[in-house]
Specification:
The protein is mainly β and 93 residues long. The chain contains no helices and 7 strands. It has a domain of 62 residues.
């Protein structure tokens, strides 16, 4: 019986480029489904949203975003310390 050969180092996992504007930095959280993606930048008070490849950035103001839900009509709602806030309530940044 021969001794086991040493394990080879793993190759780094491939990364996908960020879809949000680079000046926002690293998001606090991201997610999405069905052509809708979001990234929350808590420190900058911004939320980036991509719908079918079109990116928009919103000012989250005093909302501390902690979650998101999306209905079948495509309306996004974010959970914050003050309850639920619809995406359409956030001003464009």
């Amino acid at each position: 019986m021969q001794p086991m050969k040493p394990m080879q180092p793993m190759d780094p996992m491939p990364t996908t480029p960020a879809w949000w504007p680079g000046d926002l930095g690293t998001p606090h959280t991201t997610g999405g489904q069905d052509g809708f993606k979001y990234a929350v930048f808590a420190e900058k008070r911004r939320v980036a949203v991509s719908r079918n490849g079109r990116v928009s950035v919103y000012d989250s103001g005093d909302h501390r975003i902690s979650g998101v839900s999306q209905d079948q009509g495509g309306t996004a709602r974010f959970s914050s310390q003050d309850g639920t806030v619809d995406l359409i309530e956030l001003p464009a940044a």
